[in-house]
Amino acid sequence: MNKKLQFGWVGEDNMALLTDLYEFTMADSYLRGKRNEEATFDLFIRHLPENRSFLVSAGLEDIVHFLGIMRFTDDSIHYLRTLNLLSDGFLSYLKNFRFTGTVYAIPEGEIYFPNEPAIVVTAPRIEAQVVETFLLNTFNFQSLIATKAARVVIAAEGRQVVDFSPRRDHGTDAAMKVARSSYIAGCVGTSNVLAGKEFGIPVYGTMAHSYVMSYKSEIESFREFVRDFPENSVLLIDTYDVIEGARNAIIVGKEMARKGQKLRGVRIDSGDLARLSKRARRMFDDAGLGYVRIMLSGDLNEYRIKEIIRKGGSADVFGVGTDMGTSRDAPALGGVYKLVEDNLGPRMKFSKGKVTLPGKKSVFRILGEDGRFRKDVITEEGGKPNSKDYYPLLVKVMENGNIIYDPPSLPKVRDRFLENLKLLPDDLKNIDEVHKYKVEISHSLKSIIKGIRSKIMS
Amino acid sequence: MNKKLQFGWVGEDNMALLTDLYEFTMADSYLRGKRNEEATFDLFIRHLPENRSFLVSAGLEDIVHFLGIMRFTDDSIHYLRTLNLLSDGFLSYLKNFRFTGTVYAIPEGEIYFPNEPAIVVTAPRIEAQVVETFLLNTFNFQSLIATKAARVVIAAEGRQVVDFSPRRDHGTDAAMKVARSSYIAGCVGTSNVLAGKEFGIPVYGTMAHSYVMSYKSEIESFREFVRDFPENSVLLIDTYDVIEGARNAIIVGKEMARKGQKLRGVRIDSGDLARLSKRARRMFDDAGLGYVRIMLSGDLNEYRIKEIIRKGGSADVFGVGTDMGTSRDAPALGGVYKLVEDNLGPRMKFSKGKVTLPGKKSVFRILGEDGRFRKDVITEEGGKPNSKDYYPLLVKVMENGNIIYDPPSLPKVRDRFLENLKLLPDDLKNIDEVHKYKVEISHSLKSIIKGIRSKIMS
């Protein structure tokens, strides 16, 4: 993949300006006040979005790449100068800006939970500060979509799920990131051809109602299409009437069979999908076309898919669009990026509902005797959990500005997620009820917190 | 603005692949079947999203530009060949692809309604087909955000609204489009520096809690910041305690006043914003700092803003993030792109809830005697409304592949929206209740529909 192509909207040249203005004014003030000491910020999610019991990490590859190439072009600095806001000293500083920090992160495809540091940035304060907006924008969204897609994949119970969302995603970059994030979370592919090209994700497509309508009759449109794509035809059978459409597809499927060809499938995009798919399945089976696959689509989400399966609907593939691509029931992930340590030592906020765990930390996943996830433990940096079987969630990805992490291939990331999903306790896979996974604060970290609290209160 | 920078993710080179795969298989089939006759497609919204009474057009500039430069690079075609799906003839066709169609559209910033054709594409069928996904992706999202932002602006009743959403938007391209679309809908600016640079939108910023926390005391952080930005300081006063923060801001504001400087403002980001802002306002006024502006932020949306104002909260500026940037209560606009005319004549679907108005059409906005919007009328192409004061909503933007439209500057687009908003009936501006605006089908268009219906039924 061409790394130059990795970023949204403006390519990467001026991407360092995709930042809230206050990052620059604060940074300027730090520079003038000689306050550019080393500081550590945690990116973490405070609360699960509604209905969710776990989160899926996604977006890290973009973040590591960005931190590696982040520069302020002359063009960018010229614009900043026109604001008549920032000091000449700061603009000169930006000219030579390089990210020199050290970064730990939870790898893509790993399941994680609120309050666990997902990305930990230790760098001179200014560097750590000015990357905030990009990191949040990138991680929040991709993690949001991977989390939503995981729910859809769980609901499909082994049936295939394909991303059909490009027309409803929030712009072109979103369409790319949805394809990638949903693939990580177990989808088998996407309708988005560009995502196929750039990420190597399998692409899927059928036909639209306008194709069927462009012929005088439905069966004529089917015949035309299978003549052109004898090996790859998925016929859309609901333009006029699904049962009539299934009959036409059977006629065409038998015509193909006589030529030694196999109709690949049909798609139903409207109506009572459970009932219609069950009926269509029987029709195809009775006609000796048991190999014809049924794809369902049309405003699907994890709840509707579960309902279709519960009602005995017969689907091999679900095409899922708007609900997955926008995470419609919870379209934002409230990730935050908080100072946890600086020259004044470990820092924390005690505001109600907004507690921040202080200092550099480690996170461990503890496995039960059955090998499945038992709980996670957050410790101070260098701490160890009090258990036998565990693995650390945070991986060092950058050291002193150098990328020391070779991002796994996308299929490997996807495998990691699928392996995670197997080891996740079953109750957390219930899409209708939120269940709580245990995330423990270690005794030693608790003492550190106690110390800070008593110092503040004194 | 550099047009090369206009598109998301991959720049524009391979943007023609940001398309659902089926557009290509259908197009290939049309080419092989010699079915590339002229066809007309309407892009329109079937239903208003929940809670909305009107829509705001946005995204057209991107669309016109894309149709002008849309090409299939060798790189794109090479990838398509690897799919082993499309014919050599079709791949050769793509090599020389140019969009040669004619396009009418509702200009950006114009208020519009469901079932009104917002973009009308007439082109050889293949060309009209393969642009579908990009057009929907681009128009749906930007129109969605402009529509949401308009509600926030209405709720603010003349107070300023600033886009604070980049960290929660759906990727980098989304952050750019949110800044632009919300500015069209009356926001005064954005925190997104890159949007400031690329679109010339005013940028706004204050400071973060981490800045305040990075000093030993709040007042020290305030003093440092105003020393660095004496003309542009908006102090964040809720890191520890808002009232204490306001007292510290007053001390610093008075110190500034003695030097002939004016503290610009304070921001409150948490707590009971109505009560706290009212109290802070009084404190500043009593201290002779009546010019200090109060900015409120923290999970705001149109409903919360309205409530704050109703309760007598005192705000000059609202910073609005997640809810506006993701259109959280309705995060997708269900725009569709439907065949309405081809060599077989005007086409329409009669499916329940999915009716398509047939043929090429015109849309007119009828003004009442008070000059305000009275109703819209949809006619067949060339039709005229039966009224005195009206203007056409659709403007010809491309003719035979040539762009014949000089897109108005962004401030002009914003002015158009604000002018529209003045002329919109008051009940449609009620953010708590959905009201219906009259969109009429002309008698002549009704007869055409009747004719088609009786032909189909016969």
Give me a quick take on this structure.
Two copies of one chain form a homodimer. By secondary structure, chain A is of the alpha/beta class. The first copy, chain A, has 16 helices and 19 strands.
Q: Would you kindly provide a written description of the structure presented here, covering whatever features stand out?
A:
Two copies of one chain form a homodimer. In chain A, 39% of the residues lie in helices and 18% in strands. Chain A has 458 residues and is α/β, with parallel strands linked by helices. The first copy, chain A, folds into two domains: 3-145 and 333-359 and 393-433, Alpha-Beta Barrel (nicotinate phosphoribosyltransferase), CATH 3.20.140; 147-325, TIM Barrel (Alpha-Beta Barrel). In chain A, helix 7 (172-184) links the parallel strand 6 (160-163) and strand 7. In chain A, helix 6 (132-155) packs parallel to helix 13, helix 10 (218-228) runs parallel beside helix 11 and helix 11 runs parallel beside helix 12. The radius of gyration of chain A is 26 Å and the shape is elongated. The model of chain A is unreliable at 1-9 (pLDDT under 50). At the A-B interface, helix 1, helix 3, helix 6, helix 7 and helix 8 of A face helix 1, helix 3, helix 6, helix 7 and helix 8 of B.
